Amino acid sequence: MNLTLPPKVTDRAFARLSEIGASAEGKALRVAVEGGGCSGFQYDIKLDDVADGDLVLEGAGEKVVVDEVSLPFLADAVIDFSDELIGARFVIENPNAASSCGCGTSFSI
């Protein structure tokens, strides 16, 4: 795993956070990695408070946070927002994932 490059957040993801009023509620988008899912690891994406030790990525007045434990798994990943016919959701393009499931929420390294 590449431990040197932080994840990146697209303008589209920051724009979606602005649309839903995350910063107005005092919240940030938390992107975390947990054990589980059909491929070994899964993403946990939710609105949350900023905690001590979080990496804070800022843009357009909004914040995305990643905790210290999840950071190595998300090195050089891209956090984006997708709005397609099948639904709208935040998505992770993770170069550290060796494989992922069809739904895109779990992966293996």
UniProtKB/TrEMBL annotation:
GO biological process, alphabetically ordered: iron-sulfur cluster assembly
Pfam families for the chain: Fe-S_biosyn (PF01521)
Transmembrane regions: none
NCBIfam families tied to this protein: iron-sulfur cluster assembly accessory protein (TIGR00049)
MF-aspect GO terms: 2 iron, 2 sulfur cluster binding; 4 iron, 4 sulfur cluster binding; iron ion binding
Alphabetized Gene3D superfamilies for the sequence: HesB-like domain (2.60.300.12)
Protein's name in the database: Heme biosynthesis protein HemY
Organism, scientific name: Actibacterium pelagium
